Amino acid sequence: MAMRKSRVLCFLIFMVLFAVIKVNAENPYRFFTWKITYGDIYPLGVKQQGILINGQFPGPQIDAVTNDNLIINVYNYLKEPFLISWNGLQQRRNSWQDGVYGTTCAIPPLRNFTYVLQAKDQIGSYFYFPSTAFHKAAGAFGGIRIWSRPGIPVPFAPPAGDFTVLAGDWFKTNHYILRQGLESGRNLPAPDGLLINGRGWNGFTFNVDQGKTYRFRISNVGLSASINFRIQGHLMKLVEVEGSHTLQNTYSSLDIHLGQSYSVLVTADQPPKDYYVVVSSRFTSPILTTTAVLHYSNSWEKVSGPVPGGPTTEIAWSLQQARSIRWNLTASGPRPNPQGSYHYGLIKTSRTIILANSAPVINGKQRFAVNSVSFVQADTPLKLADFFKIPGVFNLNSIPTSPTWGNAYLQTSVMDSNFREYIEIVFQNWEDTVQSWHINGYSFFVVGMDGGQWTPASRDGYNLRDTVARCTTQVYPKSWTAIYMALDNVGIWNVRSESWARQYLGQQFYLRVYTSSTSLRDELPIPRNALLCGRASGRHTRPL
């Protein structure tokens, strides 16, 4: 009998080990160790205190394949808490790792935290960034590339090279001074310039061979300005937007709004010389411009002459371009089935949420708000308060689901919703600036955008067939943008402005996607290594 029990035990152990090996074989692990430090940087020719990752500005590239597990051990050597978020990674079933203060405690000075992420069912181009204390104005951002698994068709030939382009506006003022200004009730000043991969005018070079095609993954990692991207003398074929393969339209320049990411193919088919890679601001006064260099390997001629111009303040041009970006229905996404097999336009929505941004003054200070509620951080991450059932941290439905037009007020705003709802969200913008909205944990379908006031009749113009699915969308001045979104990811998720001063001063809230189920198929358990802060301090995560 004892021998039989021993054999059964050995068999069970073998099966467990086999399962672990099988999982690991199917979903590889990639390990990263990051040291976060201060360092001197000179992106616009002026010495600044930057935030570096392993001594780098911008930070190191993350490369992964669909479903890879990413183990990122972050050591904080700053003098204040630090937190990284992952723009576009959906953190399926795992808002614990989302890296915003509503879900995750910041890493204290001289401490570390290990993120355990998975690029579950995703492909495409994204970026990471520091999410607290206005650290984004000092660096610590970098690119994320998620490649398709072998055997999954990609709707274009493998390019000869793959470039990450992290572009955006920049301030010469150190981040902590900008932060102090915001906290005293002042908005940001105008930015001082633009950067491409952490460099100013002609400070970065992309090397190409004549006749070959290259992929450029462009992300707007700036704080306040939309940008336009173009390459002198070259056309760009759009192939991917934030994880969606697109119809391969050709553009001479592309508008990229705050927080957005695009992939284009560029063929080096011009006479051999050096060409300007241009980024300029959109809808600003004055228009800011910076350049990098596209260098042909057989070139002996440096860039020269005037920088090619681009669009400046034209809204209709940008709106028309945005509407031209469509889903490639026959292309595979992260799985082999065509993207178009998901018929988003045939699903009936359960409710409509209307979100209106505003710029109120509250208690004599500049704030920003959503439906008249200006978000303030709680003393405890909302996800931890929800898990440990800590009272008094936040109240559900503390933000209305449509504009009230009443006096704005401060609140830790959380909107409640149910797992597997299918909802319509309308972003209504009555201000005279372009808005950019991001939803963590999700990809959504941008079904419509237009000028004026949204009404139910606006649905007659929706694209219910082949609009692109993405995680960040723009809303033009005095206009609206509508999205459809399937609430298929349990957790508490940040809905925010990508204008960094606006989100810092309240234009954000959290969406709680709730299920009563305790199944691991719906949500992963709290990480054993979760940092516990605020009113969650001293509690326990779960047994080892």
TrEMBL record:
- According to the entry, every stretch annotated as the Plastocyanin-like domain falls at 36-149, 162-299, 380-516
Instruction: Tell me which Gene3D superfamilies the record gives.
Output: Cupredoxins - blue copper proteins
For this UniProt record, the keywords arranged alphabetically read as follows: Glycoprotein, Signal
| Nuclease listed as a keyword | no
Q: Name one Pfam family in it.
A: Cu-oxidase
Keyword Glycoprotein present in the record's keywords: the answer is: yes
MF terms (GO), sorted A to Z = copper ion binding; oxidoreductase activity
Q: Which first-to-last residue range defines the signal peptide? A: 1-25
**InterPro entries membership:** Cu-oxidase-like_N, Cu-oxidase_2nd, Cu-oxidase_C, Cu-oxidase_fam, Cupredoxin
Its transmembrane ranges are: none
Q: Which family does it belong to?
A: Belongs to the multicopper oxidase family.
The molecule here is called L-ascorbate oxidase homolog
The species this protein was found in: Cucurbita moschata (Winter crookneck squash)
